[in-house]
Automatic annotation (TrEMBL):
Domain Luciferase-like residues, every copy: 1-298
Lineage of producing organism: Bacteria, Bacillati, Bacillota, Bacilli, Bacillales
Protein source organism: Bacillus salipaludis
InterPro entries to which the protein is assigned, alphabetical: Bact_Lucif_Oxidored, CmoO-like, Luciferase-like_dom, Luciferase-like_sf
Family: To bacterial alkanal monooxygenase alpha and beta chains.
Gene3D superfamilies assigned to the protein according to its UniProt record, in alphabetical order: Luciferase-like domain (3.20.20.30)
Protein name: LLM class flavin-dependent oxidoreductase
NCBIfam families, sorted: oxido_grp_1
Length: 331
């Protein structure tokens, strides 16, 4: 089993945004030393508690502080942007960090309606055009527009020796088929979905159409995992993330609460039910428990790679969680 990291660059109770971004770099370094395959950082806009609005900037910083781990976006929210500019940016990264760059592509707004309007015009219309945007982006990467196309002579310079590896990120049949029809790799976000991921991944595999001879479908599954030496400790650490999720629903949650703040948060009956439901979509436990559940997911979803997202109040607890999982699964 291959393991990778998805980082949302959370801002903890005692951190600034700068602190959080530096901790993201340290997480990538730790992931590299522990044997994780890739490190992706997410794009969010004006969402309290999350620091990264520009993955491309962070990837330059992280690439300069790592040597071999694959790095990428999870995801570039393509309806906000022109494909040509995205291709330029990721070709630039692939030129600086050869054979290391992934580009995850998503269609979500990444923030509120007001933020969406501030970022781009006609977002919904661009979402409807998502298949065309993806096709255009891939043509820019491969530099293979038909000769009569308006962009046939346009290059997304600099042209790297190795093209960034494109992925479609999603949680639905629509995203799976978009990936399959374009011959792209697919990342299913199980951590943020209640859909039948196994069925969606199967649809992707059955519909896959290779862009080039010899290409095969590639899938990864993204899950939330919090691991500690004991199950009790893991449950305690996970409480910060769970309470933060409830706070966000209320328009609160400016940062990830400390464990103590999370313990002191007063829950009503509905919130207790919500917490229980959220935990069903997470892996929380000691190293052996986490390994067993990861193996179960691997078998259920028929994937070779699992990408782990871990949000804790303490950066130390977060890196320790990844260390314990690596020691149990990758060693």
């Amino acid at each position: 089993m291959k393991l990778s990291i998805l980082d949302q660059s959370p801002i903890s109770s005692n951190q600034t945004a700068q602190d959080a971004l530096i901790e993201s770099m340290k997480l990538a370094q730790a992931g590299e030393s522990l044997g994780y395959t890739r490190y992706w950082i997410a794009e969010h806009h004006d969402l309290p508690g999350l620091a990264c609005s520009a993955p491309e900037v962070m990837l330059s910083y992280i690439g300069a502080h790592t040597k071999k781990i694959r790095i990428g976006s999870g995801a570039v929210l393509l309806p906000h942007y022109k494909p040509y500019k995205v291709a330029e940016v990721y070709n630039m990264l692939a030129t600086l960090f050869p054979n290391r760059i992934d580009i995850g592509i998503g269609r979500a707004p990444g923030g509120s309606a007001e933020v969406t309007n501030a970022l781009s015009d006609n977002f919904l219309q661009q979402v409807y055009k998502m298949p065309n945007l993806v096709e255009e982006l891939i043509h820019f990467f491969d530099h293979d527009f038909p000769k009569d196309h308006k962009y046939a002579t346009v290059a997304a310079a600099p042209i790297p020796d190795t093209t960034p590896m494109p992925w479609i990120l999603g949680t639905s049949k629509k995203s799976a088929l978009l990936a399959a029809e374009n011959g792209l790799s697919y990342a299913f976000g199980q951590f943020m979905s209640e859909n039948d991921g196994a069925a969606i991944i199967e649809q992707y595999l059955n519909a896959f159409q290779p862009r080039k001879q010899g290409e095969v479908p590639e899938v990864l599954l993204t899950v939330t995992v919090i691991c500690a030496e004991t199950s009790e400790e893991a449950e305690e650490i996970a409480l910060s993330n769970l309470i933060w999720a409830l706070q966000k629903e209320k328009g609160e949650g400016q940062y990830i609460p400390s464990i103590q703040e999370a313990k002191e948060y007063e829950l009503d009956g509905k919130e207790i039910e919500k917490l229980a439901k959220m935990k069903q979509n997470m892996i929380i436990g000691n190293p052996k428990e986490c390994k067993n559940k990861l193996i179960e997911l691997q078998a259920k979803y028929k994937v070779d790679e699992i990408m782990i997202v871990t949000i804790t109040d303490s950066p130390r607890d977060r890196i320790e969680s990844y260390k314990l999982i690596a020691a149990e699964v990758l060693s």
